[in-house]
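FYI - complex with adenosine-5'-diphosphate, inputs then prediction.
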Amino acid sequence: MSGRSTAVAHSNIALIKYWGKVDSRLAIPATSSVSLTLDAYRTETTVEWGNDRDSVVLDGDPLSGVPADRVSRFLDLVRDLSGRSEYASVVSRNTVPTAAGLASSASGFAALAAAATSAAGLSLSPRELSILARKGSGSASRSIFGGLAVWYAGTDDASSYAEPLHDPGLDLAMVVAVVNAGTKEISSRDAMRLTADTSPYYDAWVSSSRVDFAGMLEAVAAGDFTRVGELAESNAMRMHASMLGSTPPVSYWEPDSVRCLRLVRELRAAGTECYATMDAGPNVKVLCRRPDVASVSAAVGSLGVAGVTTSLPGPGVRVTEAPR
Ligand code: ADP
Ligand code: DP6
Ligand code: CO
C-alpha cells in the first residue's frame, strides 16, 4: 500500500528559549518555551511511502549522513505508529535557510511529521502531531501552531507538547537581520548538549529561564509588549551566556550580530520600541510592533548586513495534498 502527502510548516523563533534536554531520546526539554511562528520562512515536504529505502532530497540535493539519518529515525517513529514497514521517499524545500539559526529544523520536522503521518493514513490531533514533531526536533513541536505558541516541558512523552498561546492583540512583527545565511559550524543539538554537559552556567540558565517563562506567560496575557520584549531579549542573552561557558566555548556571534544588537538599543533610546533575540546562529531577530516594521527594517538595512527579512506571525502546519 502506498500513500503520498504534502505538508507546509513555518519556522518559529523562541521568545523564551529551549536550550537543553533532560531526555535526549524523547526530546524532553529542561525548560518550557514560548515562540512566534513566522510567515516569512517555511518548509514544504512531500512524503511517499512504498520506496525501496528511505531517501531524502532537500532543495534538490540528496541528503546523506547525519541529516538523512535524522529523517530515517523519524520515519521509524511513523512506521511504529502506523504499523507499516515500508520505506519512504521524502522531498523537501526550505525557503528558510538551512541550519543557519533560523529554525529550519522546526519547520522541517513539523512539515515532515504532518506529511509522513498523513501519507501513512494516520489522522493525528494537533497535540499528537506536536509530540511526534518534538522527537524530530524540539522546536518543531511549536511549529505545529501559528502565531504565539507555548511548549510545556512536561515530564514524559505525553506531557511534553506545544499549544497555541492566546495573543490578546500584541500586534507583533519580526525583522530578521540576516547576518549570515550559511551553515552553522555546530548544530543546535550538539551545542545544547555541550552546554548542558560542560557549562557551569547551565544550571543558572535553567533556573532563570523558568522564571522568565512564568513572566512571559503573564506578560502575554496582560498584552504588555514592553515586558514581552524585555524578557525575550534578556532570555536570549542568558542562553548565549550559558553557551560561552561551555568547554570548548560556543559562540554563534559575528561582528554584524553585535552591530545589530547595538542598533536595537539605539532605536529604543530614540523612541522605537524593539527588542533583539538570537538563536543558534549569527542572525538577529528584532521583535517590534507591526506599525514599526518599516522603520526598523530600514534601520537594519542601513547597517549593510547580508539581508533583511520582515515577517508577521505565520500559520500552523497544514496538509496541502493527501491520499484520496
Ligand atoms: P536550524 O537553526 O536551521 O534549526 P539546526 O542545527 O537545529 O539548525 O538543524 C538543522 C538541521 O535540521 C539540518 O542539518 C537538517 O538535518 C535538519 N533539517 C532542516 N531542514 C530540513 C527539512 N526540510 N527536512 C528534513 N530535515 C531538515
Ligand atoms: C536556540 O529544536 O533546533 O533555536 O531539538 O536538538 O533539534 P533539537 O534542537 P532545536 O533547538 C532550538 C534552539 C534554539 C531555541 C529555540 O528554538 O527554542
Ligand atoms: Co533547529
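The first strand starts at residue 4 and ends at 16. The chain has eight helices and 14 strands.
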